Amino acid sequence: MLDKRTSRFLAIVSRICSDGSYKIIEKTELSKEMRERTTDFVSLGQMVQYLQDNEMIDVKYTDETVYCLTVLPKGRAAFENTRNRSRDAIKISQKTMIILIAGCFVAALIGSMLGTLLAHWM
Predict the structure, then answer these.
(1) What order of strands is seen across the sheet that includes strand 57-62?
(2) Which of 41, 74, 99, 114 sits a CA distance of 20 to 30 A from 20?
(3) Which of 8, 49, 5, 12 is nearest to 29 (CA)?
(4) What is the residue extent of each domain of the chain?
(5) What confidence score (pLDDT) does residue 104 get?
(6) How far apart are CA 95 and CA 98, in angstroms?
(7) Could you tell me the pTM of the whole model?
(8) Span 20-44, mean pLDDT?
(9) 5 neighbors 48 (Cβ within 8 angstroms)
(10) Which CATH number fits domain 1-122: 1.10.260.40, 3.10.50.40, 1.10.10.10, 3.40.220.10?
């Protein structure tokens, strides 16, 4: 299971390497796309090493400024699973919102009918 930062990193690399070939990616570009101030080259290196150890990416070349890497099938599957889970969460929340709106409508309708009946009796 990937943590949020590593999952975000895998999503960025998957987007860049969408055609399945090796791409040369600058570390500064990755750091900017992570949108976190705490993402430095050391943490990028740790994420790359973790993903490489779990056979999700393959690193062909690395130096102080760039990575040459691609996403392997296991990494693509993990990325797709994460993306599908987030879509399912959105669908659940939309379904819950529809039920909530319908419940509020019914409660308001019943409340207005009871208010009208009480007004007629008094």
Answers:
(1) 23-26, 66-71, 57-62
(2) 41
(3) 12
(4) 1-122
(5) 95
(6) 5
(7) 0.66
(8) 81
(9) no
(10) 1.10.10.10
Distances (CA, A) of 42 to 23, 31, 97: 20, 11, 42
CA distance 58 to 50: 11
- CA separation for the pair 61, 89 (Å, rounded): 37
Pairing mode, strands 57-62 and 23-26: unpaired
Residue 83 β-bridge partners: none
Residue 67 has pLDDT above 80, yes or no: yes
Q: Tell me if residue 65 falls in helix, strand or coil.
A: coil
Question: What distance in Å separates the CA atoms of residue 99 and residue 93, rounded to the nearest whole number?
Answer: 10
DSSP 20: S
Whether the Cβ atoms of residue 82 and residue 2 lie closer than 8 Å to each other = yes
pLDDT given for residue 45 in this prediction = 87
